[in-house]
Amino acid sequence: MAFTSFNFLALVTLVVLLTQCFASPLGRSLVLAAGSAVFVASYLTSPLQIVPLAAFLALCYGMVVWVQARPSRAALAISISLVVASFIYLKKFSFLDGIATLPFPYLVIGLSYILFRVIHILVDACQGGLPAKIGLLAFFNYTSNFLAFVSGPIQRFQDYAERCAAPLVLDEEKVFAAFSRAITGFVKLAIVSAVANYFFGSLSAQLFATSDAWPKAVAIYALAASIYTIYLYYNFAGYMDIVIGVSWLIGLDLPENFNKPFSSRNFLEFWSRWHMTLSDWFKLYVFNPLLKSMAMRVESPALQPYLGVIAFFVTFLIMGMWHGTTNVFLVYGLLLGAAASANKFWQINMTKRLGKQRYKALAANPLYAWFCTGLTFAFFALALTCFWTDMAQLQGLVRLLGIGGILAALLAMAVVAGVLLMAGHALTSWLTPRIEGWSNATRGFVARNLLLGTRVLGIAVVASFFHKAPEFVYRAF
Amino acid sequence: MPDTSANDMDRTMNSGATNLATILKQFGMLLVSVLMLYAIVLAITLALVPLQEEGTSTEGLDTARAGNSLYLTEPKYVFLGRTALNTESDKIILVGASNVVVGFKQAQVQQLVPGAQINNLGVGGSNITQVREIVDLVQDVQTPAARQHNTFVIGMWYGLFADDDVRWNTPDRHAGDTDLDIERYRYGFFRRSESGPVPLLPARYLDVGKTLIHPYLVIDGLARDVANNLTRSLRQSVSTKASGITDAQRNAVVLSENQKQRYLDFWADYMGHKPLSRQQFAVLRELIDSIVANGGRVVLVDLPLPAWHAERSPYFAEYQQYKQQLFAETGNALHVSTVSMHGGNADENFSDEVHPKPRVTPAWAQQLASALNAQRSTAAQALTQDRLTHNSIQQSARQAD
């Protein structure tokens, strides 16, 4: 069920209305479960396709019950190993080629995010961090909530349980905010990302058709990679706005997943602003344990700061590889890992060389800061090339552009993005106080609905330009 | 002691009802706002860009004019402009792919066939499935009486028999949607179903629908103009395709060996590197039967290709085989006639691998007009004969009384 489809809108409408009709915690949970079941079923063409996912959920629930009943490091290790092994088997990672797979097509959508949520529950259950035993209904709703099933956000179970138990009270402001948020999501998804996708499609076709490396292919590549990054951001952020807006109406209050990522001044900051719930998950369940484990083994104080370099590399390598099952995602993981560890290495060495104060002063220098902002965008755009190419196309691109061409594209993207982001920031700072009066005037019930109505019309008009609503990119991961 | 659980239940139900009322109020307000704004936009666009009716009693529809109309593209022009064909006068309706659009200039054919209105509904990139959809869409808006005045001219060549799975399978569309289907779904006049497009707006209300979507058409045109102007220099600098050329340049084209090979490769990709679709020939047979069953006539035109293309494409020989079989089967049919234009296949008559040069189109028009006039004359004679027979039967009956 596509997020831009009539069916999804109908499902959301029904779930929201029924949630108010059955407003008790149990009633809401039952409505959510039914909605999630309908949502998942919409991806099926035969009942058999759900069996592996259902079996995976059953295994996960069994492990959670076991770990909650007998919390121990051994139980945790066994349960996580079993769950991760099942996940890898069901996802058919390319390194498993040759191992017998299930002899029928089946549903893998949502599997990744179920895994993240289950590992979180298992770890917290083992550490005694969960409020109570988790019932089957709560487990299903937490792991398979249709709003966050495809691609998050990853809500903490404790927050989820708290929201479910709290009474659902909506006032005019909150309802308007929810409508506004969801409609803003559709604007991002159906207008901005659709337009960017249109231009990206045209540019990538040109790129793969051209044989002139300099300067044409480099320029087309830089433009295509940048536009793809914009497309991906608005596609994903739009999806988040929609599900977060709807979650307010059913009392779930899903967590935020983006916080102006392109204003980040370095790669590590970027990941604290992009897909934040996933980054937090990796920080909590991969980076922190890994760093702690290394710190316990390495005694030299001189080496301690560099452990972060290694931990970042491993964490981002895994995070990159998680995105897909083919070799190209290994490249993506290596690029992310290299960037994160280089970033950390740079911070350590610059601090050593310049001292904290001078490095801080350098970081505050506008030229340096905006170049770093541009470079962060550019490197992310470069790494995202793995999302829109397969291994053969990626190798073809590297041959076409050469290392020099890739570096030139990176530099061009960094400079142009830096300048544009700086100009955008300046414009926003200049405009904000000036439009405050205007936004006060539009706070009335009628005025703000008229403004919202123009957004709806904008979506309807722009959607009619395209043959097909843009697919949600992250559903593939 | 008060019953706490009953109180909780009451509170929950009250809060649920209040929440529901708040949500419905917000939804209602948004709906009213959207409708009101749309009504304003509709009024403004109608005032600024009045409705244009494509196709008049003197000038038929012509997809070559689509770019200059409010509809912008050939498929949209056909889909929305077809209501002009609901008339009880004789209509010649040309259907096929881009070589029909380019090869048969509507005005040139019209001059040579004065007794009927010429309409060119050729749509670039069509295969038989799409041609069938065009014919069906035209017949949908016509009364039974109007359908009896249709003569569909189907411009045939091997590219028209590309398999649906290959032809209508691109990343920017739902698999299987033709260009016409996209127009059907674009404004919600049809909905997608597993068995194909299902109409939501009855064909008789198409003109009302066109009026209601007027803002979309106006804004679409404006957006394209703006986008074209903004990106023209960019597209020119990155495009690997040649930009538009003049008629004089087209007339002067001489293809290089390299270009010919590129065209052959293109068509091999276009056809999916597999044999011509038998299913497409079956659809064509059904289409002919459907037109005739509705009282219309069919002219199958075997369009020429440059000799080099015909010789070197494996699809051409295969097409000839199927075509001869089709022509043999339909040869004796009362309302079906065939025209072969292969006399005009000299390489110098073509500006590329398929399309005739502008200087050649008068000859194409002449050839088609001769066939149409001959068919019309035969049909008129048959009609006269029918009437005479009918009259003599009536006379005999009266005498017998």
Task: Give the SSE map.
The complex is a heterodimer of chains A (477) and B (401).
Chain A: H1 6-21, H2 25-41, H3 51-69, H4 73-91, H5 111-126, H6 136-144, H7 157-165, H8 172-209, H9 213-249, H10 267-270, H11 276-297, H12 304-322, H13 327-364, H14 366-383, H15 385-388, H16 391-441, H17 445-465
Helix pairs in contact in A: 1-2, 2-6, 3-4, 3-5, 4-5, 8-9, 8-17, 9-14, 9-16, 11-12, 12-13, 13-14, 14-16
Chain B: H1 4-48, H2 74-81, E1 91-95, H3 98-103, H4 106-112, E2 117-120, H5 128-140, H6 144-147, E3 150-156, H7 164-167, H8 179-186, E4 190-191, E5 198-199, H9 206-212, H10 214-238, H11 247-251, H12 257-270, H13 278-293, E6 297-302, H14 307-312, H15 314-330, E7 336-340, H16 361-400
Parallel strand pairs in B: 1-2, 1-3, 3-6, 6-7
Antiparallel strand pairs in B: 4-5
Helix pairs in contact in B: 2-8, 4-16, 5-13
Summary keywords:
heterodimer, A: 477 residues, mainly alpha, globular, B: 401 residues, alpha/beta, Rossmann fold, five-stranded parallel beta sheet, two-stranded antiparallel sheet, 16 helices
